[in-house]
Amino acid sequence: MSNNGEISRQQAENAHRDGRTHVSKIKTAPGGVARNMAEAIRKLGHDPIFLSAVGEDLFGRELMRQFELMKMDQSNLKLSKTSSTAIYSALLNNKGECLFGLGDMRIHDEIDSDYIYQHKTLLESAPVAVLDANVPTTTIASVLDICTSSRTPAYNIPKMPNLVWFEPTEIRKARKICSVPWEHLPALSYISPNIRELQSIVDEASRYSTVSRTPEKQNVAFHEIPDHLRESPIELKLITECFQVLPALHAIVLTKGSDGIMVTFKQQSGRLESFCHPAPQLSPQAIISVSGAGDCLNAGFISGLLQGLSWDSCAQLGTACAAQSLQSIKNVPDSFTFSVNN
């Protein structure tokens, strides 16, 4: 969703907890998983429609100003008179390690089902709907309900003309997808978890969710297990089980940090195929900030889908976008530039 982020980094090695002021570097920037992805998708040449809520405050006005500069449609944003714009503040030590974060995300509750159904026509006509897990579970269910009911080809996306992409965001929030009623899940096509989020989804589905009470699990398996999964039985188990408990799922884009991404997709026969794509090859000195890199990776992958690119080309485009985010102080760089080889 949409929020402003603040990062404070201590300059001294030790902090004294006695009320004194510590010299720090403070950076404020627009953020939020879905907002970052919308900005990146816009800068990749597409025209996203952003559904979210902001407060009538300084941060909300700044987010609106940023949208205006990008020539991105703001007409569907909800302006709250009662809640402040979401904000997250992280405190880092002098090594760049996060000590803790503070967040005020109450406004996300205003992105409710009534607001979603007011924009039903937009969702019905969208080739891709991107959800992050910051919104209430009922909101996730409403988006999936609309997209499940209106699955007609709109864009030439290989094997999946209308898709919903779910970004789990973090371990606890990732579980929300398991509370969505079974009948709304056929539109869920892509998820982009890390290994801990994937574990959380599978565990929750197996123990408590409506997903685990589906009529029957899908019989999905690899025709031949690829080497990279033979070497990682935990990943093999989790990926296979995730496809079983989320039977309409078309692909898992597993993010692995410095090890790149693993893309596993389901053929029409139900057989699974998987490949790995390496992380950006950057020196430690070239990396300015990791914030937003994963969102830019997802945006690049989605851009590739919209262009009808191959799986490998989608992964390559996503990785190239992540590389440029890593080299920028901003969550999303001012622009994306690609060489002829890319």
Automatic annotation (TrEMBL):
UniProt GO MF annotations: hydrolase activity, acting on glycosyl bonds; kinase activity; metal ion binding; pseudouridylate synthase activity
Pfam families: PfkB
Superkingdom of the organism of origin: Eukaryota
Keywords of this entry: Kinase, Metal-binding, Transferase
Single GO cellular component term: cytoplasm
Record's compositionally biased regions (Polar residues): 1-13
Region (Disordered): 1-26
UniProt cross-references to PROSITE patterns, sorted A to Z: PFKB_KINASES_1, PFKB_KINASES_2
Domain called Carbohydrate kinase PfkB: residue spans: 12-328
InterPro entries: Carboh/pur_kinase_PfkB_CS, PfkB_dom, Ribokinase-like
BP terms from Gene Ontology: phosphate-containing compound metabolic process
Protein name, UniProt field: Pseudouridine kinase
Biological source species: Orchesella cincta (Springtail)
